[in-house]
Amino acid sequence: MYNPKSLKAEEFINHEEILDTLKFAEENKNNMPLIREILDKAKERKGIDHRMASVLLACDDKVVTEEMYELARQIKKDFYGNRIVMFAPLYLSNYCVNGCVYCPYHHQNHHIPRKKLTQEEVRREVIALQDMGHKRLAIEAGEDPVNNPLEYILECIDTIYSIKHKNGAIRRVNVNIAATTVENYRKLKDAGIGTYILFQETYHKESYEALHPTGPKHNYAYHTEAMDRAMEGGIDDVGLGVLFGLELYKYELAGLLMHAEHLEAVHGVGPHTISMPRVKKADDIDPDAFDNGIDDETFAKLCALIRISVPYTGMIISTRESQNVRARLLELGISQISGASRTSVGGYTDEIRPTDTEQFDVSDKRTLDEVVRWLMESGFIPSFCTACYREGRTGDRFMSLLKSGKIHDCCHPNALMTLKEFLEDYASEETKAIGNKMIESELCNIPTEKVRGICEAHIKDIANGQRDFRF
Ligand code: SAM
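^ thats the input. predicted complex w/ S-adenosylmethionine below
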């Protein structure tokens, strides 16, 4: 039976409820009075539920779709302004005991070299990332209790936070590792992680089990209930995601939103982020082998729908996607992107992009300087801010700030100050010139006069060599 408050996977992600929802959506896809009602509800900017979102997804009226896109753009602007948070993934180890059929790290792949970074290698990778200008990382690892036990992950986190090189520092480490126990989540929390990210891959239980035929990840309930254990362990920022292409996207959207509704119902706080990966080519993986690939138009519609369904949730797009796709999605709701990513173990210290341990082919291969410049030329402020988490503004504290709209007095100045640091320490002359101009004009958009004055002073301090200011 469907129950968003249940702690049992099959009750809060309920197959019958999803089938019912999809049937209801199909029956009502041309029901204009209902669609109008849903759009009006969405315009209140408090989100819409999985049923309403599914009706909008099923509807292919061009006018409705355009209205939806416009609303997504507007919500994006109201809640996140024109800021885009930057991050990079750091692959620690590709040892893995699972048999995920879409991932080249699956344990039966015997021809890829298996690598695990030593602490000295972590150091070198982090220095390379700092030298590009990154301040926020997402660490990634396969699941292997012998080669990558939690103690190894914790040691890496400690190493990462301890490295201070020139003006560089990693100020927030997000973690994308396999589902684990409450006790381990508590240890991750104590290690000072930002968001705990775990992609559901697919919400469809039967497909999930077929796509994860062997290894601990095969257990659908353990995987699906991971965020509840993370929250029980004290982690209040969690990141969801579906790997689009594995199952029917309509099923996945309903499941994903039900998961968000469940977290809100049980813990009083929804997901901090939702990532939007699509299956990509990788070593022995051919994305065409999966029947449910989605085209760019459907992908854009899903992005806009997630934006209007959960306005308070950050949305992430990685370098799996090309510059063009990223440009489109930035308009429709994305608030965080990675830049200059290497998806191989040790990839940042290799001069030439190594492909033998890449988790997936990277589409957007630009340098961080190029991505930053491109964002600014497109009217976005690249932000290297990590302040909320360092100021204890996580979970419901972060959400209430966002809901009240007061966030702009923190985020906007923080974005400008961290961009200024980037320009001073890492940018090319061309990027620096564009960035300084942008900072000058964007200072006017800080709502409170007093904050604006302090920010202006700190921008000068940064030019004079000081670092790490935040609101
Ligand atoms: N191993 C961890 C786990 O069990 O959840 C997560 C780390 S994995 C490095 C990060 C994510 O990459 C996976 O959750 C999956 O969604 C995604 N991924 C795997 N293979 C992919 C592919 N061929 N194309 C795109 N994304 C892929």
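The chain has 20 helices and nine strands.
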